[in-house]
Design brief:
- This protein has about 425 residues and is an alpha/beta fold.
- The protein has 2 domains: about 280 residues, 3-Layer(aba) Sandwich (UDP-N-acetylmuramoyl-L-alanine:D-glutamate ligase), CATH 3.40.1190.10; about 130 residues, Alpha-Beta Complex (Protein-Tyrosine Phosphatase, Chain A).
- Helices cover about 40% and strands about 20% of the residues.
- The protein contains 15 helices and 17 strands.
- Strands 4-3-2-5-1-6-7-8 form an 8-stranded mixed sheet, with helices on both faces. A 6-stranded mixed sheet has the order 12-13-17-14-15-16, with helices on both faces.
């Protein structure tokens, strides 16, 4: 039986024929009817990019909360339940508060066409306006320039995470077009942080932002390097600090941590009181479920990773190489993703694939379609009907290493069975 919140969320999905329809006009009209809550928010850190938004958000939030500040956050997509998307005063929004706010915003919208992400973003702004928190970390949903979060007139900081190909049907077919869309959040901010980028994206960003003030680039203004299994070295301008290595898996998480550390250095320069020992502890202890997360299940080593694009596949493959394993892969993917390239990248680092359709997702590859892709790539594949069948296979398998990937939705569904 569906909860009241899920039933209401289903109703909101039907308000506009397109799930994604990038525009700011609809949300601006609704926000005006709501009294423009987006004009009265906590100090806002706005994050756009292809990968790493959630991890960087989590690192920054942990630094701020460990140092005694209250923090709101807007995150998407969620892993297990919608409440995870809206963090109020360091905690996921309560179901009662979420339900009441969604009902209120739905009533004010009065059945006017609006996408699911737009109306839920409007509800989040209402909650953030009422929170009285010190900071708000705002993740874009898709893109940047026309993303529903990009209605706020000014912000403390804009952050651009690693940019690569994804959602080309909405953001453009070239990396230049995609980058320009992401850079659309950079406006009326006190400073900008640019994560480590590939050479082409780095050149595009620098050519677009050469007139902008107070921009901090990875590799130029800050960087990070490994010292040993416990420590990393963070360099900000000429200052060097030894930092505990994050517990999050993958070298890319060290790079993500460097962005949060750069944020803390800039904020310290702006007289925000941050204790280095507390910041160091925050980096070490930051968690971000479903992103190269390791669990144990019936004496099996489980890796959960919601990667679904090319850059995510590369980082996952790099991690599997670093720990020298070749797992069985429970694999499902939405059908607008580049499945052939994803599987091509990881194929030499896996044993075989268990193809599964993502539960409650109409727009996903069928097991037969996944099987055909695997066959073309000479990957052994077994088609399975559902999650329970996948779990039975995992329990009975002689293989100890299991990877679940291809979709954060799939990871969320399976993860709930392991906990």
């Amino acid at each position: 039986m569906k909860s009241k919140t899920n039933k209401l969320l289903d109703e909101l999905l039907k308000l506009h024929p397109k799930y994604i329809d990038l525009s700011l006009n609809r949300i601006k009209k609704l926000l005006k009817k709501l009294g423009d809550p987006h004009l009265d928010l906590p100090q806002t850190i706005h994050i756009a990019g292809t990968n790493g938004k959630g991890s960087i958000q989590s690192f920054i939030r942990n630094i701020l909360t460990n140092n005694g500040y209250t923090c709101d956050a807007y995150i998407s997509p969620h892993l297990s339940k919608f409440n995870e998307r809206i963090v109020i005063n360091n905690k996921d929004v309560s179901t009662r508060k979420l339900l009441d706010t969604l009902k209120f915003v739905k009533k004010i919208n009065n059945n006017k066409p609006i996408t699911f992400f737009e109306i839920t973003t409007a509800a989040a702004f209402v909650l953030f306006q009422r929170s009285n928190s010190d900071f708000l970390i705002l993740e874009t949903g898709l893109g940047g320039r026309l993303d529903a979060t990009n209605v706020i007139p000014k912000k403390l900081c804009s952050i651009i995470t690693p940019i690569s190909y994804d959602h080309e049907e909405f953001l453009g077919k070239t990396i230049s077009n995609i980058t320009n869309e992401k850079l659309g959040i950079i406006k009326n901010n006190k400073f900008v942080l640019i994560s480590k980028q590939n050479k082409e994206v780095d050149e595009i960003i620098k050519s677009k932002l050469f007139k902008s003030k107070e921009i901090y680039y990875y590799g130029k203004n800050y960087k990070i390097s490994e010292l040993n299994k416990q420590k990393i070295e963070f360099q900000f301008n000429k200052k060097r600090r030894k930092i505990y290595r994050p517990l999050l898996n993958g070298y890319h998480q060290i790079e993500n941590a460097s962005v949060a550390l750069a944020f803390s250095e800039v904020m310290s320069q702006k007289k925000l009181k941050l204790n280095f020992n507390l910041t160091n502890k925050a980096i070490r202890e930051t968690s971000w479920p479903g992103r190269i997360e390791r669990l144990h299940y019936y004496n099996k080593n489980i890796i959960l990773d919601g990667s679904h694009n090319i850059d995510g596949a590369k980082k996952l493959n790099q991690y599997l190489k670093s720990i020298k394993i070749k797992p069985i892969v429970v694999f499902g993917m939405l059908n607008n993703k580049k499945i052939d390239i994803f599987l091509e990248i990881i194929k030499n680092q896996i044993k075989n694939v268990l193809a599964i359709e993502i539960p409650e997702q109409k727009n996903c590859f069928t097991t037969e379609e996944i099987g055909k892709r695997c066959s073309l790539l000479s990957i052994k594949c077994l088609e399975i009907r559902n999650i329970n069948e996948a779990l039975r296979y995992i329990k009975m398998s002689k293989q100890n290493d299991i990877l679940v990937t291809g979709s954060l939705y799939l990871v969320g569904k399976i993860r709930s069975k392991f906990l």
